Amino acid sequence: MQNKKYLLSELLTREMQSPFARFIGILPNPDRVLRRTGKTIEAYRELKNDPHVWSCIQSRKSGTLSLETRIVQNNADKRVVNEVDEIVRSLDLQQIIRDILEAPLFGYQPLEIIWEMTGSKRKYMLPKSIVAKPQEWFFFDTEGKLKYRRIGVMSGEEIPAMKILCARYESSYLNPYGESLLSKCYWPVTFKNGGLRFWVSFTEKYGMPFLLGQYTRGASGDEIQRLAETLSEIAQDGVIVSPNDIKLELHEAVKSTSVELYRELIRYCNAEISKAILSQTLTTELDMGSYAAAETHFKVRREVILSDIRLVESVMNELISFIVRLNFNSERIPKFNVIVSDEENLQKVERDLKLAQTGQVRFTKKYWMDNYGFKDEEVSI
Description:
Layout: H1 5-8, H2 14-17, H3 19-24, E1 26-27, H4 32-37, H5 42-46, H6 51-65, E2 69-72, H7 78-89, H8 93-100, H9 103-106, E3 108-118, E4 124-132, E5 138-141, E6 146-148, E7 164-168, H10 181-206, E8 211-215, H11 221-235, E9 239-243, H12 255-278, H13 291-327, E10 335-338, H14 342-358, H15 365-372
């Protein structure tokens, strides 16, 4: 019979795969772009200066920021629910949600909770603010724990409990840093910027008319130089000086073909950026498409928004659990819930009604309260 100790412990660990990682206690970010370019995550922050990247980010975030939020009872005491709701509403929720949604862009986003003591008779430990901190200030160790990167301390500094909320996107055992969407945009933005530089250079070279100045044979070098300088003051670089008995022919470049080549490169790069951040292109591109294609793209966008909603809810629910544990000493914790529009809930409502009409499925009071936001007194079950 197999030894039971192997069933009670972790058999394979990161240290077995990387002795160096065990020695320094740091798990390097496995992001391929950062490893190959030798850059830090700051390089991804600079990508936000690209207008198309910024537009896609704002489009993705606005899908969640435009929705309303609520505190769901989740079997918690009504007094606790009301107080938690008041505490959460006192925070800058819009900014907190914006900061949480940085996680899909960079893979992870640490947020520091600034606590304060309030109240006169009974002291409460409440969050004064939630502040997003730079990702490069933190790292994950070989056990997958988040640590603070302090100068002079190779192994990093332990983070106190209930001090940091860490939103992570598509994280795994192999990669606790999460998947960075901006990593997928790095090369499209780089190639697009290169194409733009060539396009500008092409426009400067072939988009300006040349000014031709002619002089008679026997003119001195000083006279020719003065003529060139005079023409340069008029037309800057697009100047040619030649004897008047020499025939010059200016051949224009095939502009339409070259311009379309640059435009197609930029259009392709923008489409790749849209797919990386929004998982589709039709909501950011003006190209014509069929109604079926448009419906499919908007459905994909809706799924992306729902994924962001789940991320926001998980982080906010962790914050609420801290608040309840510190102040109310209760195991029954209310939930933070983002209200999805009625159109998106319609299929779920129709499904529940059909199941209820069969008489074979019994929905509990807790189900109606947790999934539809009804209050305790509003459900008669």
